[in-house]
Amino acid sequence: MWTPTSASWKRSARESQGHGKKAWTFLRFGAKYYKRAKVNFQKALEGDPEMCPSTLATGVVLYRLEHMVQDDRLRSEESLRSEAITQMRKALLLDTADAEVMVLLALKHQSEKQRGEPCKLIKDALRLSPDVPQVMHYVPKYFRAERSTNASLEVLGKALEQAPNSSFLHHQIGLCHKQQLIEMFKEERE
């Protein structure tokens, strides 16, 4: 008779943990290893589908993989889009207070040209975790895509208080100023 304490269950749990650790390592190594990270996170989830960190990380990997594919001809992995959204929704169901997942899901919906839900997710994420670095990195990207550079600069200003030497944040501020300059030139032409 199978019980949760049986040897096969323990071995399965250890294998899931091993795949999870391996996947996190690949994720930290960078973009070159995202596909390997995805495979290992999926193996970890096969052993324990309710493992919240692996569910979140799989969604993050899928999100990053999709954004790496810039050329429409290379978007043959059409399932990758819906797979990323599905995985992030699962992660949000497992942890309804995970602001990072909310922001990534909002950006994903925004890239799919969906309205309404992304804005709600961003507001919820800012309400739940206004000072979390990952949230502060992704929220300005959302506002910039919505052509709301002032809101983006406001969030980036708060983020700079926490990490004044962050090159990523300074780069994001530069992108906002570039967008404002482009808009200013367009207004002059009209």
TrEMBL record:
SUPFAM superfamilies: TPR-like. It comes from the Eukaryota. GO terms for biological process: defense response to virus. Keywords: Repeat, TPR repeat. GO terms for cellular component: cytosol. Belongs to the IFIT family. This is Uncharacterized protein. It comes from Aldrovandia affinis.
